[in-house]
């Protein structure tokens, strides 16, 4: 397996994801916290990537701990937070390299989020241990919010993404190929700005929503689901009360 995008080209990750509505996701979470009457401000983001959600949560006054499996994604997240802190106000974000299913974190959090397919990076056998680990980190009465990406269990045909980074064009061809154990092998070839070409191969899991709901139940969560973080989002979002 190789993770050229996460390990070597986090700037390209941002370019590929530049149309994503991060504000909408953050508004969804803060709305659910308000409805739930949650008043604590300690928030853990799992799989924070390049920090777009973490920064927004911190700007809204949360004390954020943000973890990711890939150090270069965290480096970019730190750099962006330092650069974009509005009015030079320091943001309360602690970026740490750590991964599910054993994130090796102390303390508890009033809210835990894992936004945009983070859970789909886990093998099926790691789902329950990961949810148990998050349950242990959630304060009593806290809220866990994460989504299940609608990956194609039978695979798909190659698709093309194109765009620009710093005024230079990139192109990526990618597809999911079904492999053993109900998983998908995500394969991509990217022509990066500057002439570099790199490949990525990453195992992903197309979880059924029922499977996730059952695992949450076993971990002791009471669960609600939503159709996406907002209109036009085709993920299932799980809102789980600790
Ligand atoms: C699709 S990206 C989403 C990133 C970010 N949440 C966003 O919306 O931009 C998935 C992220 O999950 C991270 N990741 C993958 N497996 C992980 C694991 N086991 N534990 C923590 N993070 C993981 C990847 O490094 C990547 O940054």
Automatic annotation (TrEMBL):
GO MF annotation: an example: methyltransferase activity
Domain of life: Archaea
InterPro entries for this protein: Methyltransf_25, SAM-dependent_MTases_sf
GO biological process, one term: methylation
Keyword annotations: Methyltransferase, S-adenosyl-L-methionine, Transferase
Domain Methyltransferase: 44-142
Name of this protein: SAM-dependent methyltransferase
Organism: Halorubrum salipaludis
């Amino acid at each position: 397996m190789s993770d050229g995008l996460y390990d070597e080209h986090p700037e390209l990750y941002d370019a590929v994801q530049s149309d994503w509505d991060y504000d909408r996701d953050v508004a969804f979470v803060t709305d659910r916290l308000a409805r739930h009457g949650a008043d604590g401000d300690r928030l853990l983001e799992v799989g924070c990537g390049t920090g777009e959600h973490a920064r927004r949560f911190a700007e809204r006054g949360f004390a954020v701990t943000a973890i990711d499996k890939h150090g270069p994604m965290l480096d970019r997240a730190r750099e962006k937070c330092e650069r974009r802190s509005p009015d030079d106000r320091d943001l309360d974000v602690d970026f740490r390299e750590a991964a599910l299913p054993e994130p090796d974190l102390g303390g508890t959090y009033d809210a835990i989020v894992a936004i945009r397919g983070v859970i789909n990076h886990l093998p099926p056998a790691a789902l329950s241990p990961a949810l148990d680990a998050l349950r242990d980190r959630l304060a009593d009465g806290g809220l866990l919010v994460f989504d299940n990406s609608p990956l194609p269990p039978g695979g798909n045909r190659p698709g093309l993404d194109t765009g620009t980074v710093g005024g230079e064009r990139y192109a990526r061809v990618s597809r999911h190929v079904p492999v053993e154990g109900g998983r998908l092998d995500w394969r991509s070839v990217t022509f990066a700005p500057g002439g570099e070409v790199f490949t990525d191969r990453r195992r992903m899991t197309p979880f059924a929503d029922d499977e996730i709901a059952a695992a949450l139940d076993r971990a002791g969560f009471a669960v609600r689901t939503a159709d996406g973080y907002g209109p036009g989002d085709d993920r299932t979002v799980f809102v789980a009360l600790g």
